[in-house]
User: Fold CCA tRNA nucleotidyltransferase from Microbacterium pumilum.
Amino acid sequence: MLNMADGVERLSALARSPVVATLAYAFTRAGHDLAIVGGPVRDALLGRETNDLDFTTDALPDEILRIVKAISTAHWDIGRAFGTIGAMVPSPNRPAEQVEITTYRADSYDGVTRKPTVEFGDSLEGDLARRDFTVNAMALRVPTQTLVDPTGGVEDLVARTLRTPADPSVSFGDDPLRMLRAARFAAQLDFAVDPATVAAMAALRKTLSIVSPERIQGELVRLLQSDDPVRGIRLLVETGLMEQFLPEIPALRLEIDEHHHHKDVYEHSLTVLRQAIELEQARHPDAAPDVPLRIAALLHDIGKPATRKLEPGGGVTFYHHDIKGARLARKRLQELRFDTDTTTTVIRLIELHLRFFGYAEGAWTDSAVRRYVRDAGAELESLHILTRADVTTRNAKKAGRLARAYDDIERRIAELSAQEELQAMRPELDGNRIQEVLGIPPGREVGEAYRFLLDVRLDEGVVGEAEAERRLREWWAARA
Assistant:
């Protein structure tokens, strides 16, 4: 429960911090107002960590720039057209902190694009009223430490509710990206969304078409970076917004025939995502969120609707849903403008997420373990997490058996790695040596020889350079 006394003290401490005091003095001396605005105010009241500081002021961009030049180690005006000036502001015995100061805004939208017609405002209250949610529409005037909350943000913080300052249909009509931000903040803050706001999201879901894929991708990534994104994903699915940019997720809600029994694939996928995050945080507590892993956990079964087959006797199969899912994921991630590295990682994890279950059914040879490592490559640790998270059975005996099997494969990988430097996974002869031994020039045949030697390495481990040369000559002679 929100403790307002503690929150007020945290706000006061924020206002007294050296960087804020430096800026407040400079703007006051120049005859201008200054207020901390948005996320830092909300997070201080909630007791959450406050990162970058955002300020708003009645000063115009040129005047902001003039003021910060005198007190900053660096400044930039890339956002000048939108009224924003950035700066690195130092304070005694501390590294400089990044801040952004923006002139009061009173923008208008044309309803065709989400780009506003930039208009500067003349009051702090007017600036706050145009923001996305009431909990982000609070400001703390400095140095007076006066909280300004014209839309009831404090009350919504206490109620743990997300609500738009204006009519939600107007707010989302102005900028449809705010609907995705609602899902993100619901997950990050663990807040419920006001029913009228949810209704407006559903009604205006198709207006998301005016938002660029890059912007949608950015909000999806921020949602997945939260400690528990499931609340936000559910909201996007229930309002129909997910259908607009990632329709494979709502498609997981397969109709379950009373005579054919299988898991609820949608609920299973959300559970896998949650379990993957828990494992990721347990195994790597200080690491940044692994976004490709989380995307793979969410999408790993999206091939199931297209491959579902109802079998006589009540069985259900999803043959090759891993391959189908990888193809669907590639198409969707490319449409959302994900970078090549992220897309490649996600595809590899989806393609390989079923491989382990063959191990659970029977012991693998050392060669099979080596191939598992080789195919996973740099994603081996993420594959470990995804595969463990993919066990959602309520059968404790089965879950225990699978966990022990994966403990065993990780143990064997560690042992083989110690013996053979398994992660390197290269033949004992490189391309140049292959050309020397066989007396051939660079070309396709060198690649074929390399793959032959790689198979020897995977099947048998290290055989020694001399033996590798003998095998190579033998293979070459048989091939000829």
User: Anything to note?
Assistant: The radius of gyration is 28 Å. The chain has four domains: 1-155, 160-245, 246-420, 431-479.
